[in-house]
Amino acid sequence: MSSSFAGSLDALGSWRQSLTRRLDEIAHYLGEHDLLDEAGGDMVESLRQRLASEKLVLAFVAEFSRGKSELINAIFFSDAGRRVLPATPGRTTMCPVELGYDAAEAPALALLPIETRLESLSLAELRAQPRAWTKRELAVDSPEQLAQALGEVMRTQRVSLDDARALGFWDDANPDDNPPIDEGRVEVPVWRHAVINYPHPLLKRGLVVLDTPGLNAIGAEPELTLSLLPTAHATVFILGADTGVTRSDLSIWRDHLSGHARTRYVALNKIDALFDPLTPPAIVCEQIERQRQLTAQTLGIGADRVFPISARQALAARVDGNDEGLIASRLPELESALATQLLPQRRQVLEEIVVDGGARLEAHVMRSLGDRRRQIAEQMLELRGLRGKSNARLHTMLQRVDAETTEFEQCTARLHAMRSVHSRMLKDALIDLSSEQLRDQISVMQRAMAATLMNLGAKRAFSQLCARLRTLIEHAHQRGVEIQQMLAASFNLLNADYGFSLSLTSPPDLQRYLHELDMIERNYVQYLGITQAIRLSQPKFMEQFRRMLVSKLRVVFENASGELELWNKTASSQVDSQLRERRRGFKRRREALERIQSAAGELEQRIGEFEAQDARLQQFQSKAAGLLQTLRQPQSLQELPELDEPVLHLSASIAESKRVPMHA
Fold first, then answer.
1. What is the side-by-side order of every strand in the sheet holding 185-189?
2. SS3 of residue 160 by DSSP
3. pLDDT tens per residue, range 121-138
4. What is the pLDDT of residues 545-561, one digit of tens each?
5. CA-CA-CA-CA torsion sign (474, 475, 476, 482)
6. How far apart are CA 493 and CA 509, in angstroms?
7. Class assignment of domain 55-114+194-341?
8. CB atoms < 10 A from the CB of 197, how many?
């Protein structure tokens, strides 16, 4: 019995894979016909990488013993017929656990030792250091061995009070939140972070599940609070239906989850524990509803975001195929909310990526095809004008070709000047998005923070940093517009004076990177207020904050820089392509005229060949436009035609036409 959310996610993953497969087919097809130059190939690769890198991150957050792992098992892994994640009474998940799948890596459990907290490196930096991790192979075909390997996330060790304080598990300022002491020693996790590479069908589709431990781990790991949780596409906060919102639950919600209510879901777990033989079921249902309303009021969210469930009952029902038990668990209501509210948003994001990339690729390919047909038309017109003409006329035409070639070569000086200006303007635009500029701006923020007592000016300094970074992105966008205007003017002159057919698309809109910057500011600023004064005064926390902030902002700036650079590369590459083709065209025109001059019957044969070639290119242009149009209408992907026989026949025709000398 499958999960409704799992089914919807699987459908989304299949749809995305179909998009990627169609993109690969189109790229292969265009490449076979010499229509995918370096710039076009870069566009395809960029689109392919963006599709592949789009993950759906779903975080499960709760204090200990709320049933997080059981809920994850019930929603995603019931088809395994057993618990994939350990879910036993008491503390099970002792460190944050990420479940995902990377086909390039073997199934394994990667564990980061807790001692790495004593270093200044963030999790993002440690991910790039394989030696820092301990790996355990996963026997995915053996349930017993798999369960035993995943049980590693439950391991703990006892350390001294000083070590616990250094590792972040003991806070003298908040004694109520500290773990118990046994003979002067404190129990702490063995591992800081765990990453499970598991070939589950849903994980293969791009799902990443984040299972977090309790309040102490959330507070002690800056990257969990500042990076992983804020960037999750949705968060499920699990409470006990019997206890409601406890003090520690409320602390987690207020400190880490209170923002972005539309992506927050609350699960009141263990409702099965409220039923007993002495209380009528109707009374118990009323009690559950009151708890639901009280929870919503306490957390300050709508009651429609609170879902009473029984994860244990749902998992057992799915494993046994018990429909009535699944309905009684009420889990399908939570899954339905996730499927109907979260997944359409992710599909819309993917559609926007594909539509934009498909439009750019289509414009690039159609421009190349149009230029080929235009030059064939010019050459046919020239050959038709030779009908009935003497050898003297042919000699005159040869002289004209030589003169046109000489005149055309004069464009190289203008092209050199244009490239020089373009290179300088692009360099100026990319400076605003460089890593050096980013580091300089963060250094300014750090100096502003250090100038205040206990870093209490951190919030203001951070907001000022984000304002400066927005200005840099806006300046880069404006410089992109200026580059577009300069190239448009230059292209118009080259087209008019030298017969080019150069054209431009709009420069990339960097607005979405401003949105990403806004999201980073919202997620981070809550940790820089007056209530965080003690943490802000700790050099270790501030260093981790700086490193994490740099890694997040670098991704935004590198992506913006890469998109702007790719657009410029695409715009300038067509100049090289058309220059090369024009030179070939002049050479082929001269060769064709020389052959016609030496053989009287050659003229009509050549005209017929060019007419057939143009007909084939027209057919290919129509077919290529139809194929590329499917990328701009991804919603109709399920109805796409296959690249079948008609296209293969066209392939052979075009291949044959490439043997005909042409002015292209």
1. 156-160, 185-189, 181-182
2. strand
3. 777 778 888 899 999 888
4. 777 788 788 889 998 99
5. positive
6. 26
7. alpha beta
8. 20
